[in-house]
Amino acid sequence: METLTSLCASQTLVSHTARPSVSANGYAYSLNSRAFLPRKQRMSIIKASVAVEQQTEKPKVALVRIGTRGSPLALAQAHETREKLMAAHSELAEEGAIEIVIIKTTGDKILSQPLADIGGKGLFTKEIDEALINGDIDIAVHSMKDVPTYLPEQTILPCNMEREDVRDAFISLNASSLADLAAGSIIGTASLRRKSQILHRYPSLKVVENFRGNVQTRLRKLNEGVVHATLLALAGLRRLNMTENVTATLSIDDMLPAVAQGAIGIACRTNDDKMAEYLASLNHEETRLAVTCERAFLETLDGSCRTPIAGYASRDENGDCLFKGLVASPDGTRVLETSRKGRYALDDMILMGKDAGKELLSRAGPGFFNS
Prior knowledge:
Strand content: 15-25%
Number of strands: 16
CATH architecture of the largest domain: 3-Layer(aba) Sandwich
Shape: globular
Radius of gyration: 29 Å
Strand order of the largest sheet: 5-4-6-13-7
CATH superfamily of the largest domain: Periplasmic binding protein-like II
Number of helices: 12
CATH topology of the largest domain: D-Maltodextrin-Binding Protein, domain 2
Oligomer: single chain
């Protein structure tokens, strides 16, 4: 009788339907083979050979590992990145070619304190940057307004995807706008930028500063009556398909947005030419230039979570860059604004941002941000 090894290798036993066969008395007999085996034994041999074949297949290794925070909004941005990479590169469209890796950041871990109290920069990016540098991920997807004005060594941020709507959304169950809120109404926000601009225009309102958590958490707190209203970035609500919650959209003049609000940035390692090539295909240059201008403004002011700063660069009807910048005292009693206009070109826009920052620093004077 043939050995087990030779039977496993036999073409007859790999597929018993491939060649004609007959059966009698519980035995299967292949017309092209001299082997007689009980049917149960024959099937167990086939299953064993298939299992060996499956074990020898190497697991697929992702071509791109995307690092992201685990909030619903962060994941929506990571999935948007994945979809655009798949559309732009055929090899990334194959199953398993792109993996999304969730990384918990300091900002996600500490929710009991205001952002201003737990440290300035990099609260939502530090651990993701470390994973990138260590080679645990290949690219890092960030909300650009969370990215410090400096980048860690060994990393670059060559890509900003096309910007979403930069405006803030007003959400309330019992008022149609900030102006309609009764005196003493409580607004929840984790942003000093929003707090200072609200109190500057509506000093009779109260602002709860430690109104933190993801979009869903904040809306739940609003529904539970913890606050009477809140402000959220319209861009995030759009990416989550949750715009039905918006009561009103605030104009740029009513609420100047955060630097880089609505923009997604994607980083990679400095020496990773392949990832840089992938990211180049997703970059939206108009957005990248606007974000660079705004970040030059922020860097000049050395802004942090303790500093109410707003800035927005856009292209006007003539194709030029129009930049608006603002700094405020945390209590909203003083707000300083400025604007610049110039060519929509990288060097010009960097100079505009820096110049606007220098002007407001000079006008603010020492101790302005401690008031």
